[in-house]
Specification:
Chain lengths: ~260, ~260
DNA sequence: CGAGCCGTTGATGCAAATCAACCCCTGTGG
DNA sequence: CCACAGGGGTTGATTTGCATCAACGGCTCG
């Protein structure tokens, strides 16, 4: 918390290093914040945007936590994405678009709203920023593909493990490596994000805890054995090595409490 | 685009009409074909790109059918997207990226390859084309979100109905309205795309057929009752009306054989 | 210190997986 | 044009993972 350099990045800071004069992620966020039309402050549980309503603005989550979801007919919801500080929500690069999803805060949050006009101007005047945003969209799409993969023929254990792994790697990519992560999610959120029932999520979390892999309770995430978590996530292909490298790198940083 | 929520289509020509001097989809495809580095011809079942290998080029499917997928550890695969003529595959707007998915042909196909350098140049010189490509990525993500929604707590019947509906609307958005659509998919592909077993896909298709809703057999898709298909897909929210409008529009076109 | 949400656990039911055997289309080569 | 081979589709018996529902227990925050 103290020593670790605070990156403004949502994503791997390394990923956005300024090579060959291209825009860094920080610059993109700054550019967006500069051209913001307004700043909204929301309490937990309030809607940032709503599925089916017109939305031709970009919403940048300046502070707080939120989640992106699709409401279902029967009152249930499917969580598509969790978002924290620095995340762009509701990027519809078309005029007069309607929101394809809803977004709701999990904690007190601040949101910068950038209107489509401003955005289009930005796109034309700063093509490097545009490329970065396209890269961001590409990454979001890949994350969505991850979700699809997780939902198909994957066991409950793997689904939950994948989600927790994702949250962990996300936090560590931001330079936060505490023993214990504070993430404002309930088991019901995990259920909505994995497509499982709360009962089964609980059982699965209990199993992972009893196996000494990971603990998630009362909005606290504790990684006990990252290697086993990766295994539990069922990632054994070519991506496993990369992942373990990232993990090793993270483990070597200060304030990271994983045992050897 | 007009407000066509969840299931709007892949390459809706109408969607890309030139309003306010912006790039049409046709122009984007032409621009890409012009700056192509090479043209590949592939037979059915060959790989266009492979998960985990370097890929900093854009692949444009000039002719034929293909599908985008993630391989699973146990030899299974999750199909993320079906693609036909005019679809852009493998759009990673970053240099030295690795492919986050594989893509494989379903029929004889031609692929135009646009290298990253050419692409970056295009991005800088024609920002309107860039915006279109960003919109494409955004739409791909939304389609992936559709898939996630379909996978969560949705019955097999609904999943299969949604996929067939998507294929139908895609074809009709392209102006093809025959009684019978030729789509080079087996039931195993449907299974991989819906996360079901082939056995259950078969039973579900049989049920839909016996209900007089839709037939899918031997690579032929026949819509018997589009209204009921929409109902079977379980889309009853605000998007249902729009969808039924699209359907009615399609039904009024020549060569469309849906009974009243 | 209490209320209420969150997490925990157990009993029961069902939707879909699995596996195996069979049948039917379709496109091939004679 | 027919025969044959093989992939794709069909069907049934059995198993299983997860949903559902209900009741209880323990955090945490006001």
């Amino acid at each position: 918390m103290t020593a670790a350099p605070t990156h403004d990045d949502k994503l791997c800071p390394e990923e956005w290093h300024d090579t060959s004069g291209r825009a860094t992620w920080t610059r993109v966020v700054q550019a967006l914040e500069r051209s913001k039309s307004s700043l909204r402050k929301l309490r937990p549980g309030e809607d940032i945007l709503t599925f089916g309503t017109p939305c031709d603005a970009i919403h940048l989550l300046v502070s707080g936590w939120a989640y992106v979801f699709r409401p279902l007919e029967d009152g249930q919801q499917v969580i598509l994405q969790f978002a924290d500080r620095g995340t762009i929500i509701g990027f519809h690069p078309e005029p007069n678009a309607t929101a394809q999803y809803s977004a709701r805060t999990l904690s007190n949050s601040t949101i910068a709203v950038v209107s489509y006009d401003h955005f289009e101007l930005l796109f034309k005047e700063a093509p490097d920023v545009a490329i970065r945003l396209a890269a961001l969209l590409s990454r979001d799409r890949n994350l969505a593909f991850d979700s699809v993969t997780s939902f198909s023929r994957i066991s409950a254990r793997q689904r939950v493990a994948r989600l927790l792994l994702q949250l962990t790697l996300h936090a560590s990519a931001q330079g936060a490596y505490p023993k214990e992560l504070s993430i404002p999610l309930t088991q019901e959120h995990i259920a909505d994000a994995t497509g499982l029932s709360t009962g089964h999520v609980n059982r699965t979390l209990g199993e992972l805890r009893r196996n000494g892999i990971v603990e998630f309770q009362y909005r606290k995430l504790r990684i006990l054995n990252l290697g086993d978590l990766i295994t539990a996530a069922g990632i054994d292909g070519p991506s496993a090595k990369t992942l373990r490298d990232v993990a090793a790198q993270a483990a070597s940083r200060p304030h990271w409490g994983v045992s050897p």
